[in-house]
Design brief:
Distance between the termini: 87 Å
Number of helices: 4
CATH class of the largest domain: Mainly Beta
Strand content: 15-25%
CATH superfamily of the largest domain: Rieske [2Fe-2S] iron-sulphur domain
CATH topology of the largest domain: Rieske Iron-sulfur Protein
Oligomer: single chain
CATH architecture of the largest domain: 3-layer Sandwich
Shape: elongated
Radius of gyration: 32 Å
Number of strands: 9
Amino acid sequence: MAKSKSTTNATSAPEGQKSRRDFIVVASYAMGAVGAGAFAWPLVDQMNPAADTLALASIEVDVSKISEGQSITLKWRGKPIFIRHRTKSEIAEAAEVATADLRDPEDDGLRVQKPEYLVVLGVCTHLGCVPLGQKVGEVRGEYDGWFCPCHGSHYDSSGRIRKGPAPTNLEVPPYTFLSDQVIRIG
């Protein structure tokens, strides 16, 4: 049996059919990806927070009822927030501190929007305890701010770490003054 010279390889196809096959493969992959996305989207979307949880993402606080020298504690996103209406002497003490002497150097003016009101997250930056100093008669530490009794961290009246194992200052949450008396946190 002799092979004829006119026979062609059965696996090769004309150039037009090859590009049509490639298009069909790419189109089927694309449709598969769209289908997978349509299937996965509801599963991912259900992990978003509910509307009632998003409503707690920001709170408004009337600070006009906080007298000078008084502090209040409230909850925001399940964490305590300390708002202190600072006295003139507390403001002056916080402004006089040389930031070069601080472990976490931060000027008092950068931590407050209005000098008389300090808003900080009431969680010690060492191990997440809630420092003392909000209530009348509680230990406020050596720097007249807050004191974490768990491991001895002392914060000043600007919420800056001054002594103890805490590595950073008390965190300042995002907040804005809506008016002279109303703060929105979050």
